[in-house]
Write a structure and sequence with these properties.
This protein is mainly α. The chain has a domain of about 55 residues: Orthogonal Bundle (Multidrug-efflux Transporter Regulator, Chain: A, Domain 2). It is built from ten helices and two strands, in the order H-H-E-E-H-H-H-H-H-H-H-H. A two-stranded antiparallel sheet has the order 1-2. A hairpin with a 5-residue loop joins strand 1 and strand 2. Helix 4 packs across helix 9 and helix 5 crosses helix 9. The longest helix is centred in the C-terminal third of the chain and has 35 residues.
Length: about 220
C-alpha cells in the first residue's frame, strides 16, 4: 500500500507518519521508485504500537524508541529483555547502583517472591510503600495477605499468555502491562463502588423513603363525572 493508504488504514495524519519515519520509530517502506515506497501490514501494526506507547502510555519518543528496539532486536536472555522493556514504562524511578529497598524487600519476603533490586518495579514498590507509610496507612499484613494471592494469580495468567517467540513476547509484555494496568485500576475502583453502594449507598436511603401516596378525588371538579 502507498503511504496515503497507510494514513487511511491507521487514521494517523501524513505529517505524523513522516515524523515517525524521521525518528526511526516506523521502518521505511519498500522503495518502488525514487519518490514512492510500499507499506504492508507490519507497518499498520507498528503504527498501532507506536500510538499505544506515545499516546496511551505517554512515553517520550526516546523511551518509545528504546522499547521498539528491544522488540525488534531482543537480547539472547529473554528474561532480561522483558525486564528492560518493562522498566521503560511509567512510573519512572531513580535507581542507584547498589541501592537497597528495605520496605519492598520485606514485603517480597512475606510473599515468598524473589527480591532483585535491579528490577525497576522493586524501586517503584519501595516508593509506593514509603508514600503509604508517610500518609499513615501502611500496607499491613492483613491487607498484604489479601492482595498478594490475587495479584499473583493475575500475574500467573499474564505470564502463561506470553508468546514464546522473542519479538512477539516483548511486544505482548510491554503492551499488556501498559494497557491492562489501567483496566485493573478501573475494575478495582468499580468494585469499590459496587460494594460500597451495597453497604452504605444511596440505594438504601431511597428504599427507606415512604411510598408516594396515590392522588385522591378530594378537591377534584365533579364535572365530567
Amino acid at each position: 500500500m502507498r503511504i496515503s493508504e497507510l494514513v487511511e488504514r491507521t487514521g494517523v495524519p501524513l505529517a505524523t507518519l513522516k515524523y515517525y519515519l524521521r525518528e526511526g520509530l516506523l521502518p521505511s517502506g519498500e522503495a518502488t521508485s525514487a519518490t514512492r515506497a510500499e507499506y504492508g501490514e507490519a507497518h499498520v501494526r507498528r503504527v498501532a504500537v507506536i500510538r499505544a506507547l506515545t499516546e496511551t502510555v505517554g512515553l517520550s519518543v526516546q523511551k518509545t524508541r528504546e522499547v521498539l528496539q528491544l522488540i525488534d532486536r531482543p537480547e539472547d536472555d529473554l528474561f532480561q529483555t522483558l525486564g528492560s522493556a518493562i522498566a521503560a514504562l511509567p512510573p519512572s524511578v531513580t535507581q542507584e547502583a547498589g541501592a537497597e529497598y528495605p520496605r519492598a524487600k520485606a514485603v517480597l519476603a512475606k510473599l515468598g517472591q524473589r527480591y532483585d533490586p535491579g528490577f525497576a518495579a522493586v524501586a517503584q514498590l519501595e516508593q509506593a510503600l514509603a508514600a503509604a507509610e508517610a500518609a499513615g496507612i501502611p500496607l499491613d499484613d492483613e491487607r498484604l495477605a489479601v492482595y498478594g494471592p490475587h495479584v499473583r494469580a493475575i500475574a500467573e495468567f499474564d505470564v502463561r499468555s506470553v508468546p514464546r517467540e522473542p519479538t512477539a513476547a516483548v511486544e505482548y509484555a510491554v503492551l499488556g502491562t501498559a494497557l491492562h494496568e489501567p483496566v485493573l485500576v478501573a475494575l478495582r475502583r468499580l468494585a469499590h463502588q459496587d460494594i460500597a453502594a451495597r453497604l452504605f449507598g444511596a440505594g438504601r436511603a431511597e428504599s427507606k423513603k415512604p411510598p408516594a401516596k396515590a392522588p385522591t378525588s378530594k378537591g377534584r371538579s365533579r364535572k365530567g363525572g
